[in-house]
Amino acid sequence: MSPRSGANSRPYGYIRFAFTLLMIGQVWLHLIQGKTCLKKVPEHLFKTGPASMLPVLLANLMAGMIFTIQTARQLDSMGAINSVGGVFALAFGRELAPILTACVVAGQVGSAFAAEIGAMKISEQIDALYTLRTDPIDYLILPRVLACCAMVPILIILGLVFGIGGGIFAAAQLYQVPPLVFLDSVRSFLLTQDLLMLGFKGVLFGIAIGAIGCGWGMTTYGGVKQVGESATAAVIVSGMAIFAIDLAISLLLGDLPIKKPM
């Protein structure tokens, strides 16, 4: 099954999605077989990690401050202001930090992957790789997916650290909560398994971002306009995939309430 081709035609969304799922299977098959261009991985590690670090850290820092301000306002009215760190850990640490970080990476890295590969597709550079007996999966896609899998969990942890820093600053300056009280409350609620879960989520988010960006790029047809459309669509679909993955993890691994018989 291949997407429609032609100057004025574009592949349907469901065809792109099916192509991306098939491509993910090929990526892991080639990885198991040891077929990858390792010399391309460091380049994409830098693009995914250090090049994306500033927007990720700034977004988490400001989000941490905003979340703390809104949460502390309610807790202060109930006389439980010293618990703000625990509430912060439960909501921001477990959910908001990984989702926010992944969405920022999707906007910067996923769109870049789609644009780069899409430009190669319409300029027939992908066909040239086949002519040279080079599999695009090994040369283009696998290094990008591996880079996302490696760097997104690291960025999530760094983003969480900066988010906690923003929360500490906001709580101390606006509500006079000592930093040690805030951190003690965070440590009481944020457990080791929560950090491991952040890493697990980061790997899954990285697979989604890398695969969707590459998949939407590989299915680009037409001209320069379609390259931009593919990059935009890749960001939107990556964001939806991030939320869907997080929801699935919450349903499968979360502690769901058990209904007691009447």
UniProtKB/TrEMBL annotation:
It is found in: Membrane. It is a multi-pass membrane protein. Keywords: Membrane, Transmembrane, Transmembrane helix, Transport. One of its GO terms (cellular component) is ATP-binding cassette (ABC) transporter complex. The chain crosses the membrane at residues 12-31, 51-69, 145-175, 195-219, 231-253. GO terms for molecular function: phospholipid transporter activity. Its main location: membrane. PANTHER family: ABC TRANSPORTER PERMEASE PROTEIN-RELATED, PROTEIN TRIGALACTOSYLDIACYLGLYCEROL 1, CHLOROPLASTIC. Belongs to the MlaE permease family. This is Conserved hypothetical integral membrane protein. It comes from Chamaesiphon minutus (strain ATCC 27169 / PCC 6605).
